[in-house]
Structure of Cytochrome P450 2L1-like:
Amino acid sequence: MSTFIESCEFLTDEEGDIYVNMPDLHCERALTRLLRSTKWGAHPIVVLTEYSLIKKAFQHPSFQGRPDFFSYRIVQRHRKRGVALSDGLVWSENRHFLLTQLRNLGMGKTFLGDAIADEASLLMDHLEKACLDRPVVIDSALNTAVINVLWMMFTSKRYDVGDLEIVQYVQVLEKILYVSRKKIFLLDIIPVLPKILPMFILNAFFDFNVGENYFQELTKMSENKIREHLTSLDPDNPRDIIDYYLLEKTERDSNGFLTHFDAQQLCGMMNDTFLAGLDTTASTLRWMMLYLTIYPDVQAKAHQCLDEAVPRTRLPCLADKPRLAYVEALVLDVLRLSSLAPLLMFHRATDDVVFEGYTIPQDTLLMACSEICHKNKSFWQKPDQLYPEHFLDENGKLDSDKENFIPFSVGRRQCVGESLARMQLFLFTAAILHRFKLEAATTTSLKSESDPATTIFNRPDRFELVLRKRN
């Protein structure tokens, strides 16, 4: 049997679309664009563009590895850590622990929803006091509110907007995410570069030292929190995820388990969670505000939905969700349209795998084009517009179980914090729209298109808007 990488014959149709000519079970040769093969520098890649194949591949047990990228090794200090970038036993143990504790601490449950609603209320009060009726960029306050929810789950502590410790922490997270958008990914594509280029070129051109220094600073902050917990740990009254991890580690050590539980794994989990939370939840909320200034008719419908379901005397809560189908559909369509991770995260074949009639060689990477799914013209009525009706049935009821919708990935490596992120997105969006009307600032030109040079994350450019308090 020939391998996929060797056998795929690339063709171009009249419109310039690339297809792959490959055998089909029912005919000798069939033209399809479901699978493609390419190379990203030294890495052979299978490109998946169709929902059913993405789902099938990402559920396969031998497609759960992560790439051995240079940037990944630096971030993890040449050792598999955390959840997002690790694989094998390290990944499965860390994922199981983190998912269990997130659920134990309320992910998807009402009492955590109340805590998020409280955080949203504090954010609304801050925005009303500091940002009303003038052009503003509200990134900092929004980031703090999003991180506070995660911070409480890990450390049992929250911060006020402007608190120096949380400001510094969020700044480091933002700088890491900024560097990740720069040229450093070229070191992954051409892995020989770090070996042949002098350090001053790596630092000057790729921001190598900047990214490494910021990540070390982030890890040091996480380590400090772990040390604080070690000195105050009460085994009979665990407070948060750090406490539960330390207790689990103690139990495993005492019973002679050969496991990967240690402080560095906990640091990796914390770093993964906070970076993902800031990048996914906060960026989606920024996209939401940007889109609503561009689509005032959608904003007006959301306001009407809220006014019919929630009194003006209080902010929306999780119990209101069944009556706020349009608002929830709005959140889902923002996730679809923005496609924060247009290629999701790369998977790696840990063995030779026969997939769709082809042998995918070990260490081949799999790239899933979620943005193609999210803007499939044959599936979505208005693929390039904000249109919450995509997620409503003919009776106006929520219809969220959609094919071609994978903002949090799919399969065995689907985002651990998806339920938490959806809770935050719904409650923060509902609170913002309940309290404010969003208008475009005349001082800035709003752009809803993603940067075509972006390959990993679609983040909105910084923009100003005007918040008007609703009566």
In short: The first helix runs from residue 4 to 7. DSSP finds 17 helices and twelve strands in the chain. Confidence is low (pLDDT under 50) at residues 4-33.
